[in-house]
Amino acid sequence: MPRRYVTTDVFTDRVFGGNPLAVVLDSQGLSTAQMQSIATEFNYAETTFVLPPREPGNTAQLRIFTSTTEVPFAGHPTIGTAVMLGREIEFRNQPARDQFVFEMAAGLVPARLLREGGTIVGAEFRAPQPLSVGGSVTVADAAACLSLAAADILTAAHPPQVLSVGLAFLVVELASRDALRRASPVFSMHAQVLPPLGTDAIYAYVRGEAPGELHARMFSPLDACVEDPATGSATAALIALLATLQPGVNSEAHWRVEQGVDMGRPSLLLGRTLREDGGILATYIAGHAVPVMRGVIEN
C-alpha cells in the first residue's frame, strides 16, 4: 500500500536550514519494525508516524523514531507534524484548525499553529511532563565527553545534570561561546558516561548577552546522530530548570535559543515558561517550519 509522506525543515523560516523531519501521514497498519525501517531509510534525526487517536477528542497518536530507536517525545517532530497536518487539512479544503492534541508515549502534547497573514508558518507546543532532575556527572567526565577542558564547564547554576520533560538529556553549561564552538563528542566517553544515567545525549549551552538568550548544541553519537540542529525537548527541559532558578513566585519568562549554527543549519527556538507559587506551571516551545518535499512510500 503506498503511504504519503511530507518533509519539513523545523525551527527555521527557510528551506535547508533548521532540523529536517519526515512525517508519514498514512501510518495505520505499519508494524513497529516497518516504522523503524522507514525512519532508518530517511536517516533524519527523527521521523513521525501519524496514527488515529486512541481517545476521542484528541487529534492523532504520534510515534516518533530516530534512525535507530523509538522515542517517547521530541520537540521538532511535534512542531513539524502540527504544521504539516495543518497544511494538509487546508490542502484538502477541510475546515481550518489551529489547535491539536497529540498522544505520545510521554503523554498528551497540546500544540497550536502560528499564522502570519493567514498562512501557517509554525507552531507552539506544551511539554508533556513537568521537569524532572536526574543524576549528575563530574566536571571531568562532562568535559571529556565534549573534548573540552574542565575550565570550560560551569557549575555555579547547576552541575552537569540529567533533565527531562519527556525525554532525558545530560545538560551541561559552558563558560563561553568559544567553548561551545570547540565542543566535539567523544563516542567512547559517551558510551561510558551516559547509559548509566538513562540517556544517550548531551545538550551543551552557553548564556547569551541578553536576558533569556541562549546558544546550544546537542550531541548524540550513540543514537547515530553526531549533532542535532535543533532539539526542542532538551530546550524545554533546560528553560524549565533555569526558570526555577530565577527570582519571583508568579511570572512568565521568554527565551530565545539559537542552535545548529556551528554545523551550518541555523535554528531558532522560542520558549516560554510559566511559574506559579514558585514552581513551573507549564513550558512551551515554538518555532517556524517550512515544507520541503512530498512523496509516496512504496511498500
Task: Give a quick summary of the entry.
The chain has helices at residues 32-42, 75-91, 139-145, 177-182, 187-193, 232-244, and strands at 3-10, 19-24, 46-51, 60-65, 70-71, 99-104, 107-116, 119-126, 132-136, 153-154, 161-164, 168-174, 202-207, 213-220, 225-228, 251-259, 267-276, 279-297.
What does this structure look like?
The protein is α+β, with helices and mostly antiparallel strands and 299 residues long. It has 2 domains: 3-127 and 288-297, Diaminopimelate Epimerase, Chain A, domain 1 (Roll); 132-285, Diaminopimelate Epimerase, Chain A, domain 1. Helices cover 20% and strands 42% of the residues. Strands 1-2-3-4-6-7-8-18 form an 8-stranded mixed barrel. Helix 3 (139-145) runs antiparallel to helix 5 (187-193). The radius of gyration is 19 Å and the shape is globular. The mean pLDDT is 96.
Features of this protein?
about 300 residues, alpha+beta, Diaminopimelate Epimerase, Chain A, domain 1, 2 domains, eight-stranded mixed β-barrel, 6 helices, 18 strands, about 20% helix, globular
Structural shape: globular
| Proportion in helices | 10-25%
For the biggest sheet, the summary is: 8 strands, mixed, barrel
CATH architectural name of the largest domain = Roll
Q: Beta fraction of the residues?
A: 35-45%
Topology overview:
Blueprint lengths: L2 E8 L8 E6 L7 H11 L3 E6 L8 E6 L4 E2 L3 H17 L7 E6 L2 E10 L2 E8 L5 E5 L2 H7 L7 E2 L6 E4 L3 E7 L2 H6 L4 H7 L8 E6 L5 E8 L4 E4 L3 H13 L6 E9 L7 E10 L2 E19 L2
Parallel strand pairs: 2-3, 4-6, 12-13, 14-16
Antiparallel strand pairs: 1-2, 1-18, 3-4, 4-5, 6-7, 7-8, 8-18, 9-11, 10-12, 11-12, 13-14, 14-15, 16-17, 17-18
Helix pairs in contact: 3-5
